[in-house]
Amino acid sequence: MDQATIDMLAAQPVADQGLFIDGQWRASQSGARMIVTSPIDGQRLCRIADAGAADVDAAVAAARRVFEAGVWSRAAPVQRKKVLHKIADAIEAEALALAVRGVRDNGTEIGMAIKAEPGSAAATFRFYAEAVDKLPGEIAPTQPGVLGLVHREPIGVIGAIVPWNFPLMIAAWKIAPALAAGNSVVLKPSEMASLSLLRLVEICAECGLPDGVLNLVTGQGAVTGQALGLHGDVDVLVFTGSGFVGRKLMEYSARSNLKRLYLELGGKSPNVVFADAPDLKQAARVSAGGIFRNSGQVCVAGSRLLVERAIHEEFTELIAAEARAFKVGNPLKLDTDIGAVSSEAHLSKVAGFVDTTLKEGATLMTGGERLLAQTGGSYFAPTVFTGVTPDMTLSRDEVFGPVLAITPFDSEDEAVALANGTYYGLAAGVWTGNLSRAHRMVSAINAGVVHVNTYGGPDVTVPLGGHKQSGNGHDKSLHAMDKYVNLKTAWIQL
Questions:
Q1: CA-CA distances (angstroms) from residue 62 to 23, 103, 189, 253, 443?
Q2: End of a domain among 265, 300, 324?
Q3: 286 and 353 housed in the same domain
Q4: DSSP state of 223
Q5: pLDDT band at 315, cuts 50/70/90?
Q6: Are residues 334 and 234 in the same domain?
Q7: Is the pLDDT of residue 136 over 90?
Q8: Cα separation of 285 and 281, whole Å?
Q9: List 109, 191, 264, 322, catalytic entry
Q10: Strands 157-161 and 236-240, sheet pairing
């Protein structure tokens, strides 16, 4: 990866994009389009199709037709395995182009994007390619004269709605296991970041995925997403995004066909630092990355830093120094540490949280301001607040931006109470040199992922899912396959 190649790719024009339905590109039936604006410089990149309910109907119908035909759903596991491996190879072959395309769309710094987007997506497709023929059925322990068999079968049509922060990675988490199980998929990207996924579905078709097995509809959440959520022929809907939208989708499921719904929602993840942490400078460096990478636009971001009072002042200074050291700028430059906030609208939301926190009495250590306004892009300084109390907005609500809340604690019990004092339960971190304490904290904190002496980085081998209002079900690992299969019992009298 070199700067000259990145610059060459970034200079290439992006053609207007359509919908991908039944193996073909097509305009929306209404002809409506949306303008894609880059958060890097505020410039227009292209236009994408704005799908309506009729377009969703067409995509679902294509997915259902090919599922019932059995071209993919009843294909031999080894056949599906070969195609998924080809997809992984193709993603790797054009990883840099995919990463640059995505960065132009959502502003993630290129150093992170290359690993988290095509790198992770390729690994995910490869993982589930290998899983295809390694999840057998079961023979039940029955009485003599009876044979009980448990079959795993694909469900049908999967609707997948994915966010803008890591569209390629998160889409792969959902569509790779769904395809591995033999299902058909209708994918709805965020209207704020669709470009890398528009290329992904094309790659899948080029690698031999049959027409109609993977379809993509771009459009507004309130229209396209709603139509997918309400559709009576979608069997399962998987979603990553906000709690507000998650509740809407639950309503749509109830109003339509009671489709299964799996949600990965927001987080307000605690990162707990004890005085006996083995290396405070390392803890500060990693913790700063855990909140400020991708401008804090990470579901598992360690946005609440809980610090034992004995080291509170020292550690706060270390964190603030790390925040000030980050270089914020053009995410397509290799020397940039932190890229752009996804949009002007989201930047305004982040700034609003800063204003509210100041009014509620917290102390601003560093940041709190827009940067590089002259570029036309959306950039915000890494921001650190101290004196944040549990009743403040910044302790309760997800910012999804580069804003850190620091709160002191005096005991392990208080740390647990603070960590669990939220309606979220997605991720957490613990820094300690005491092995027993580490295990106690892992057990006590109510979250789907608990990091110990690190933050961020679990790969596809382990599940990611939320507790409480952070959602249900799991992405990644073999456990994700459970969302995409039906269990069928055969009870046979011998």
A1: 9, 31, 18, 21, 46
A2: 265
A3: yes
A4: I
A5: very high
A6: no
A7: yes
A8: 6
A9: 264
A10: parallel
Transcribe 259-314 into DSSP letters.
-EEEEE-----EEEE-TT-S-HHHHHHHHHHHHHGGGG--TT---EEEEEGGGHHH
Sign of CA dihedral 147, 150, 151, 153: positive
User: How does DSSP assign 156-192, residue by residue?
Assistant: SEEEEE--SSSHHHHHHHHHHHHHHTT-EEEEE--TT
Residues 361 and 387 in one domain: yes
230 and 282, same domain (yes or no): no
How many independent structural domains does the chain possess? 2
Q: How far apart are CA 182 and CA 72, in angstroms?
A: 6
* Geometric angle at alpha carbon 152, from 472 and 59, rounded to 5°: 70
Q: Is 473 left (phi over 0), alpha (psi -120 to 50) or beta?
A: left
pLDDT in tens, 18-40: 999 999 999 999 999 999 999 99
Q: Among this protein's residues, is 264 annotated catalytic?
A: yes
* Whether 367 contacts 349, CB under 8 Å: no
Q: Assess whether pLDDT exceeds 90 at residue 273.
A: yes
User: Within 13 Å of residue 166, how many CA atoms lie on the same side as its CB?
Assistant: 25
Taking only the tens place, the pLDDT of each residue in 424-465 is 999 999 999 999 999 999 999 999 999 999 999 899 999 999
Task: Provide mean pLDDT across the span 176-201.
Answer: 98
Phi, psi of 465 (to 5 degrees): -160, 160
CA 270 remoteness from chain centre: 19
Q: Which two tokens stand for residue 115?
A: 């690993």
Maximum distance among all alpha carbons in the chain? 79
Same domain, 412 and 308: yes
Q: Assess if residue 386 is contained within a domain.
A: yes
Across the chain, mean pLDDT equals: 97
Clarify whether residues 157 and 29 are in a common domain. yes
At 342, the amino acid letter reads S
Residue of 299, 308, 322, 398 with catalytic role:
299
- Residue 350, domain CATH: 3.40.309.10
Domain extent, residue 390, equals 270-459
Residue with tokens 């360690």: 302
On the question of pLDDT at 1 being above 90, the answer is no
| Cβ–Cβ under 8 Å, residues 379 and 343 | no
Q: Is a pLDDT exceeding 90 seen at residue 269?
A: yes
| Shared-domain flag, residues 126 and 260 | yes
Neighbours of 160 (CB within 10 A): 25
- What type of residue sits at position 449? V
